Amino acid sequence: MDPKLHDVRNTVKEAISTLHSSRDSAQIQETLWAIKRYLDQSENPPSIKQKEEFTRNHFTVLVQSLLSNLSPDWPEQFPSEEAKELWASFFIDGPADQSFMVLLDAIISAEPSFRLNKAVDTLEQFLRKSRLSALIWEICKQHTEAGSPVLRETILNKVVCLPDHLGNKLQEVNRPVFYPQNYFPLLGMEIIQVMERISGSLREEILSVLVPHLTSRTQSDCIWQRICWRLFESVPDRWMEAVVCGLVQAVPGPVVLSRLLGNLVVKNKKAQFVITQKLLLLQYSFPSQLVLKILRIFIRSSSVSSVLTGSEDAEKYEAALGVLETLIRRDSATAQEMSVELAKVLLHLEEKSYIEGFVGLRQGALVAVTVADPIRVAKYLTSEFYSLNYSLRQRMDILDVLAVSAQELSRPASSPSKPNASHPSIQIISHNSSSPDWKKVVEERVRSKTRRPLTTFDLLGDDHLVLGRLVHTLAILMYFALHAAVRRMESFLMGFESP
């Protein structure tokens, strides 16, 4: 036998001997605490094999000993409430099927005595602590393991016939909780809890297989993304809550959740209610902190991004664009989770003539997300600058955003958001500039290519205007990087000089 398993047997044997022979309260409690470590998460927990050895081969004998050694001087051996709870915890926290059978057998076989009353008290506590559901769950698990069918049948018979057993034994002193009219509704609720647990377990098993595959397939394949979106959009409303809740707990992060659900929150009212309201109300029922992080990130980014990319509601569109910069600056750590995605949405955002200050709002949000995550967003913007199928205006926007972001990043963290007059500053050329010379230079070029994507990009030819602007922006970047308190912008500057 494994020496560690042998230690478990010796420890239980010594504990039973102490329970039989000792009347010293401190010694008995110390012994029980030493045994309790096989049921709880202690500072120095035993191995999994040791716990399994205890629950499978020694638990029943131990709790039988706890009951057989009950005597009228029990209150003296367990004087405090903590000591009494320690004794009862073996029946409440231990394997439910074994605890139930030991308690019921002790009640049936005992004569009227303190031992009988204590066993009845403990069984009543067992029922009120919803341990019947744990018992039924253990029986359900045994169907998938190498358990004894005869034992399962015996336990189920005892569960169903409990009111008869207690009624026959206790007669006129029977407890209300054991009356059939009270016990069977309780049993019904316990069965419902087990069924919900089975349903949740099956859902977790399905999602544990489904989510990793969908995550990998949708990462770079737009066809799989559309298939996934259609899959979740087709879920009936009556099942939507279960699917969304399970998915929120199964995904590794908010980016994946957003990629799998797409615009579901905007398109489906039930999903919108679950994500934006119900899950927030029930957030503390989820043990994982990741779930909370997903909900504060996903709701903001998904709602705002979905409205900006797919909403036809002018009021929602304007409101989303108006608050986006504030949301990003309020929680930069959250913005980093979706920084590149937000930058992509904003860069490709079509100008809405009915929104006053549209260009400024979009640029402000782009600057905010660049400042929040300068390395990743700057790499994205600089790589897109040299890509084809971008208009002249979009390339100018990229240069403006990089320049303004560099200026903001060059200031100490404690500095105000607007530049101080005492600090040197370089004027950033803006397309809104009122300079007549600037307008003359760009008028014809902007008119022809601002709205139309460029299929070619020739900095030394027709697009020399952009080259001049690029050199100007590089000078700004170098200047602010030189004087930056924290040089977060320097790492990508050299790579920006050539495509």
From TrEMBL:
<dbReference type="InterPro" id="IPR051970">
    <property type="entry name" value="TEL2_Regulation"/>
</dbReference>
<protein>
    <recommendedName>
        <fullName>Telomere length regulation protein TEL2 homolog</fullName>
    </recommendedName>
</protein>
<dbReference type="GO" id="GO:0005829">
    <property type="term" value="C:cytosol"/>
</dbReference>
<dbReference type="Pfam" id="PF10193">
    <property type="entry name" value="Telomere_reg-2"/>
</dbReference>
<feature type="domain" description="Telomere length regulation protein conserved">
    <location>
        <begin position="305"/>
        <end position="406"/>
    </location>
</feature>
<dbReference type="InterPro" id="IPR038528">
    <property type="entry name" value="TEL2_C_sf"/>
</dbReference>
<dbReference type="GO" id="GO:0042162">
    <property type="term" value="F:telomeric DNA binding"/>
</dbReference>
<feature type="region of interest" description="Disordered">
    <location>
        <begin position="411"/>
        <end position="433"/>
    </location>
</feature>
<dbReference type="InterPro" id="IPR019337">
    <property type="entry name" value="Telomere_length_regulation_dom"/>
</dbReference>
<dbReference type="GO" id="GO:0051083">
    <property type="term" value="P:'de novo' cotranslational protein folding"/>
</dbReference>
<dbReference type="GO" id="GO:0051879">
    <property type="term" value="F:Hsp90 protein binding"/>
</dbReference>
<feature type="compositionally biased region" description="Polar residues">
    <location>
        <begin position="412"/>
        <end position="433"/>
    </location>
</feature>
<comment type="similarity">
    <text>Belongs to the TEL2 family.</text>
</comment>
